[in-house]
Design brief:
Elements: H1 7-32, H2 41-49, H3 54-65
Length: 70
């Protein structure tokens, strides 16, 4: 029967497996996909969304969706 790995052992084994399979750069790129970031998205979103009315937001979306001139 195999013993259960501790959390530090599990992390070490997982990082070693990623490094072996993906290489150092690939391992880092993979891990960056799971970064939780920082800050308070809900508060920050409210701050920049409160600056626009619904009509202004609709206009900005319409401008963004217009095809670029050739």
């Amino acid at each position: 029967m195999t013993r259960t790995l501790t959390i530090p052992e599990l992390k070490k084994a997982g990082l070693e497996a990623l490094r072996e399979r993906l290489g150092p750069a690939g391992m880092i790129r993979f891990l960056q996909e799971f970064s939780s970031g920082s800050g308070d998205y809900t508060r920050d979103r409210a701050a920049w969304l409160d600056e626009l009315t619904l009509d202004q937001l609709v206009e900005k979306i319409a401008q963004f969706q217009k095809p670029a001139a050739p």
